[in-house]
Design a protein that fits this description.
The complex is a heterodimer of chains A (158) and B (553). Chain A is α+β, with helices and mostly antiparallel strands. Chain A has four helices and nine strands. Chain A has helices spanning 17-27, 56-68, 97-109, 130-139, and strands at 3-12, 32-39, 45-54, 72-78, 83-94, 113-117, 121-128, 144-150, 154-157. Chain B has three domains: 2-171, Thiamin diphosphate (ThDP)-binding fold, Pyr/PP domains (Rossmann fold); 188-346, TPP-binding domain (Rossmann fold); 361-530, Thiamin diphosphate (ThDP)-binding fold, Pyr/PP domains (Rossmann fold), CATH 3.40.50.970. The chains are: A alpha+beta (158), B alpha/beta (553). The A-B interface holds A 15-16, 19-20, 23, 27, 57, 60-61, 64-65, 67-70 and B 119-120, 123-124, 127-128, 131, 148, 301-303, 305-307, 310.
Chain lengths: 158, 553
């Protein structure tokens, strides 16, 4: 059964490494949902965190294929119970005078912050687990959402 | 002491034991050739007609000798011409180091003359590739490339070197080769588990693939077969590892494999897969592959586990190391009932008919391999002749059957035959090819003539793209779309135009006479053999089929 997987890949910090990992996913026919890359404590390495919908067989294949890349140091699956998973949402909503305070009220419940405000719209920033972001977007769905952007999951093991 | 990058490159190749290079000069590699000028007595250089042929030659050299094939091409078209060759080696896990020049660093990304991002282009057909833009990193990059190409599952590696790197000066001191990466480690408990599967099986069958060849595990494989009376089938990549004379070896399995091999897999209760990937030409229908059997698998590459067929138990490791650890735990058994079953299956193997007036493929192949003996290196292109060669080449030694098994590259043969002969000057090399495959890269005949490489090319000419025609014949209602060639090509004149000797024949006697005469020639020879257009490769199980679907006529 397919489910959302979070994979944490430690790679050598060389030019082209991201292409190798992303290219492998593409040519083996797997679709990446989110992807983040960041520096690590040791500047020789970077961390790629990605999420994809995979079943167990696909996961095994993908992990062993990825592990074969010369630039990949290690790959592991992260789980909610042993890792902290976070992503950031920036969402722009068209607002009228009447609905503005209502939206701020909901954002407050989710610990969202209004980072931009104009007469016609506002932008809310929200950090949290992907499920929390999903829930927030769902709750304000009846507002006039102009657009939004999510960073994708980044994660650290406990 | 300081040297130019080009000299450092050549010196490092020599440090890695390279004595043969297949390469083609050009603007971006002119510095390499300038350096090579001083090393002509230490490095044999073969210049193909086309870079694709050069890579196939390096590949044939590597397949037949077990060494790393080395090839050079210039930037842009030189580099892109290599790609089919690199991909061919990649699909069959052949170690190559391919070196391309690129434009100077100040021109990179500017769409300069003959600039191409070969680093990006070859990413998916190499195990790894490098772009060298700093002469300080050149020597170690070359050393790493050889180590990566030969570590674990072997594969091609490409090094793209910018032109100014080859002109820059840097310190060089000879360094030894880098060690190969450690082979995957396995636990004794895993070996015990494998042994348990094998000892408990009544009808086990070994399914041996190219990994047995790459890990030189033929001896251990034979010990396992003989100790426990386990019959084996081989893939096209394992021809020669098990000999025709091995009683327990049934022969090739799969689409054009022997009936007995396919029946044995179908009726087994345990498939022991060694160094093989359950390709779609063997596991034609993955859902019905060995329907009553447990499947255990040994492979050096963890990503082969559960890739094409879901297995019951798998051990990641080098086949030779795993078999060595496994053998003491295997019980001696005679499994007579199973061997009696197998003997019955053998009675159903296809028997090809003979004909004197128009020679049949199996007759001419059998004749040639009998004449030239067990040291003969058989090379093929791709298509019907490839399957006939696989079926009748009767090789008994490893590395004596060279074919593009994974990628199925028409045009592979001539280059590969040149490479095989360069690597094995004392052994006869025969290329069996078809009229379709031969014309794809026949320009390499010029290479063989120029470099005085004695190869025998036997063209099974049926005036059609035989394998595609066979599918059209059997599966596409005889709608022969774009397959018949029907050109009035004169192969004898063609050979002569290139400076080679040519023959054309049809009957058994004509062929024998031509072949005997051809072996007296010094240079390369071409023998055209006219065969029937409707000759089929039999038996055949269509793609996606099972033993229920075997076609025998």
């Amino acid at each position: 059964m397919k489910k959302m997987r979070v994979l944490s890949i430690l790679v050598k910090n060389n030019a082209g490494t991201l292409t190798r990992v992303a290219g492998l996913f593409a040519r083996r026919g797997y679709n990446i949902d989110t992807l983040t890359v960041s520096a690590t404590k040791d500047h020789r390495f970077s961390k790629i965190t990605l999420t994809a919908e995979l079943d167990d067989i696909m996961l095994g294949q993908l992990m062993s294929q990825t592990a074969k890349l010369q630039e990949v140091v290690s790959i592991e699956e992260l789980f909610d119970h042993n890792s902290v998973l976070r992503e950031i949402l920036l969402i722009k909503v068209a607002v009228t005078h009447e609905c503005r305070s209502k939206l701020i009220e909901i954002a407050n419940i989710y610990k969202g912050v209004v980072v931009d405000l104009s007469r016609e719209s506002m932008i809310i920033e929200l950090t949290g687990k992907p499920q929390k972001i999903d829930a927030f977007i769902n709750v304000i769905d009846n507002f006039n959402i102009v657009n939004f952007c999510r960073t994708g999951v980044t994660a650290v093991q406990r | 002491m300081k040297y130019t990058g080009a000299e450092i490159l050549i010196k490092t190749l020599l440090d890695e034991g390279v004595d043969t290079i297949f390469g083609y000069p050009g603007g971006a590699v002119i510095d390499i050739y300038n350096a090579l000028y001083d090393y002509q007595d230490q490095i044999k250089h073969i210049r193909p007609s086309h870079e694709q042929g050069g890579v196939h030659a390096a590949d044939g050299y590597a397949r037949s000798t077990g060494k790393t094939g080395v090839c050079i091409a210039t930037s842009g078209p030189g580099a892109t011409n290599m790609i089919t060759g690199i991909a061919t080696a990649y699909m069959d896990s052949i170690p190559l180091v391919c070196i391309t020049g690129n434009v100077a660093s100040h021109l990179i990304g500017k769409d300069a003359f003959q600039e191409i991002d070969i680093y990006g282009v070859t990413m998916s057909v190499t195990k790894h590739n490098f772009m060298v833009s700093d002469v300080a990193k050149l020597q170690d990059t070359v050393r790493k490339a050889f180590s990566i190409a030969n570590s674990g599952r072997k594969s091609p590696v490409l090094i793209d070197v910018q032109k100014d790197v080859m002109q820059s000066m840097y310190e060089y001191e000879p360094k030894p080769s880098l060690p190969l990466a450690q082979l995957p480690q396995f636990e004794q408990s895993e070996i015990e588990k494998l042994a348990e599967y094998i000892n408990n099986a009544n009808k086990p069958i070994i399914y041996a693939g190219g990994g047995v060849n790459s890990s030189n595990a033929g001896k251990e494989l034979r010990e396992l077969m003989n100790k426990a009376s386990i019959p084996a089938v081989n893939t096209i990549m394992t021809i020669g590892v098990l000999g025709e004379l091995d009683q327990l070896n049934l022969g090739m399995v799969g689409m054009h494999g022997k009936n007995s091999s396919n029946f044995a897999i179908e009726n087994s209760d345990l498939v022991i897969a060694l160094g093989t990937r359950f390709s779609d030409r063997v596991a034609l229908n993955t859902k019905h592959f060995a329907p009553d059997a447990k499947i255990i698998q040994v492979d050096i590459d963890a990503s082969e586990m559960n890739k094409n067929v879901i297995v019951d138990y798998a051990v990641v490791g080098d086949v030779k190391e795993v078999l060595t650890a496994l053998l003491p735990l295997i019980e001696t058994k005679n499994r007579q009932a199973w061997l009696d079953n197998i003997a019955e299956f053998k009675k159903e193997d296809y028997q090809a008919p003979c004909c004197e007036e128009q020679i049949k493929p199996h007759q001419l192949i059998s004749y040639v391999v009998n004449e030239l003996g067990e040291d003969l290196i058989v090379v093929t292109d791709v298509g019907q002749h490839q399957m006939w060669s696989a079926q009748y080449c009767a090789r008994t030694k490893p590395r004596t059957f060279l074919t593009s098994g994974g990628l199925g590259t028409m045009g592979f043969g001539f280059g590969a035959a040149i490479g095989a002969k360069v690597g094995n000057p004392d052994k006869p090399v025969v290329l069996f090819t078809g009229d379709g495959s031969f014309t794809m890269n026949m320009n390499e005949l010029k290479t063989a003539v120029d470099s005085k490489i004695k190869t025998t090319t036997i063209i099974l000419n049926n005036h059609t793209l035989g394998m595609v025609r066979q599918w059209q014949n059997l599966l596409y209602n005889k709608r022969f779309s774009q397959t018949d060639i029907n050109h009035s090509f004169d192969y004898v004149k063609l050979a002569e135009a290139f400076g080679a000797k040519g023959y054309s024949c049809k009957t058994v006697n004509e062929f024998k006479a031509a072949f005997i005469d051809s072996q007296k020639q010094d240079g390369p020879v071409i023998i055209e053999v006219l065969i029937d257009q409707d000759e089929l490769v039999l038996p055949m199980i269509p793609a996606g089929g099972t033993v229920e679907d075997i076609i025998m006529e």
